[in-house]
């Protein structure tokens, strides 16, 4: 019996050490996990509940209506236009961010004098407040005394009411959004370019590849993980773009710049239709989830990992 009790001492100590380390682990993880549930999962669950009720955000009574809010959205012509505006804005921002960001990264990757300063200038708009950027650009686009009026005048062109015309308001917002966020995609692409081994370009030159062939067969495949990352993040961020639209156009004129996130805001905090706002928010969540899963499942197979 004495031998058995001695043999149990190390095992008991081991369990105590394990329990103490486990408690320390819980002490660090539990608060963060609790906050994550409170501020991420609970709002999503509550939004799903609100999408099934009728509530004016004033009365304490919430009347259950089932899928009526969703049926209203699918039958509302204004919501159809909102979805088109969202798709238009997202595709334009995605294509512009990838193409212009890569072009800027290729330029900033050259051994030029002052390139560090140029990189700082390109990235600077990313850290600026979206509201401040919107205010400045609203002044630039002003048809009476804005800078764009002066630039168009140099070429003998008439002034354009950028933010007051349904045809020009969305392009104006896209230009501003790209200007503010282009530095992010450029810096991500630049980091990817600097991680491409020089030996790959040397081998391509030995095989007789020109610059264009090197770009197609070396640069683009090596940048595919970066491109995949930017596609996912750009789509999510552009669908959620709010501040610039709020400051520059307020969703107008006549709904020309009303995207899904702005429609949610209008329905919830202006029309006090919490159920409609929550239903549109759930649709946005489902759309982003499906798009992201498709990207991960389809695009990731085309990504080259060294």
From TrEMBL:
Keywords: Cell membrane, Membrane, Transmembrane, Transmembrane helix, Transport
Membrane topology label: Multi-pass membrane protein
Annotated Gene3D superfamilies: MetI-like (1.10.3720.10)
Cellular component GO terms held in the UniProt record: plasma membrane
Location(s) in or outside the cell: Cell membrane
Transmembrane helix as UniProt keyword: yes
Main location group: membrane
Cited InterPro entries: ABC_transporter_permease, MetI-like, MetI-like_sf
Residues spanning the membrane: 22-42, 87-108, 120-140, 160-179, 215-238, 244-265, 277-298
Residues annotated as domain ABC transmembrane type-1: 83-295
GO biological process, one term: transmembrane transport
UniProt keyword Signal present: no
Similarity comment: Belongs to the binding-protein-dependent transport system permease family.
Protein name stated in the entry: Binding-protein-dependent transport systems inner membrane component
Taxonomic source organism: Thermobaculum terrenum (strain ATCC BAA-798 / CCMEE 7001 / YNP1)
Lineage: Bacteria, Bacillati, Chloroflexota, Chloroflexia, Candidatus Thermobaculales
